Amino acid sequence: VKDIRLGMAGLGTVAQGVLEIINNNGALISQRTGLQLRVERIVARTARPEVDLRGARFSHELSDLYNDPAIDVVLELIGGETDALDLINQSLLAGKAVVTANKAVIATHGNEILLGNTKAPLKFEAAVAGAIPIIQAVQSGLVANRFEHLLGIINGTSNYILTAMQEQGARFEDALADAQRLGYAEADPTFDVEGVDAAHKLTILLALAFDSAFDFDHVYVEGISQVTPADIRYADELGYRIKHLGIARQVDNGLEARVHPTLIPKEQLLANVNDVMNAILVRSDAAGDTLYSGPGAGGSATASSVLADVVRVARILSGEISSATASDPTRAEIRILPITEVCAPQYLRIPARDEPGVFAHVANVLSNHQISIEAAIQKEPRSRDAIVDIVILTRATVESEVVDAVREVSAIDHVVGPIARIRVEALD
Ligand code: HSE
Question: 125 C-alpha to center of ligand 1: Å?
């Protein structure tokens, strides 16, 4: 049995999960891998007397980790950007393997980290989709494949909120507060609800699957904060659920890379992935469709992936496997399509006064833009204000055309209030 000495930055939810798993399953891990995982040192800004450090030394300086010759692997579990980036770089420079759960740092600084580091392995399975070994699947299980698309639910907090709104009619704010209490949300929950966290994860998946640089700046980002109970209800009537999806797809003229709320048919498996669960559907040339699902956030779920990476880097350090990271920070020529060039069906909710001819006028504008209508519903006017919601599902249309049409529809007499627009994925 070989000792693997860990230095851990952070003492939050994921770090506590790491301590707990080693305590509960350390002997099992050792039996399976021949590795004895020992947390030697923990560095955190604030001490937490209530947490049993299980014999690890505790201090406040991150440099204590990379300067300590008794540490083989640094676990970066502090989140945030500046300090985490510095810790990762300094640790790699000191020749220590690094395992991180920090999607923001990898998505936005991954290229510079990889270009500057030739010395030690860096792994980040826990950065994408919590417990799901999706990076392993892409880099190892599916290594013989070309990828057509990777798409799915990659933010647990958003999925938790949308599920609560859909199933219990919960208010957005209450559902978010629950997700925070359960330890799912980022320190800044706007990263979750505005799609930034999902975009970080999609950036990583895209780079690994399409062998390119990390290109966060070109990922299209939209969160769930504009999704209303009315949209959830109308989508339901039309046979759809609203999920927050990350989509990376190879199309003829480039790559789609987008995160946004999406209508998906109710009967699809993805539509039934609820609460904090994530799921990623991968389509690749040899394997066909494969689906990966599991808890996308939470302490022990994420710590499970952290420890899988620890075992992986230990095997790299012992020369048992090679350390290839697979994404190529020098290769940026893959073209990510601007969202205006993406072609997808769309859901439109158009609030209008209940007057003759409004629907015909709307249909006429859509037709002038070559937009076909797949389905439409119109409800009784809301009681007091005599406003109706005209709800339309279009067939697949290039986004720029829909944007122009929506602008024209907004200017129609009797169309009131903002028009809601949500993209649709048929998943066929
Ligand atoms: N805040 C993230 C989520 C945590 O809700 O998915 C896991 O990355």
Answer: 13
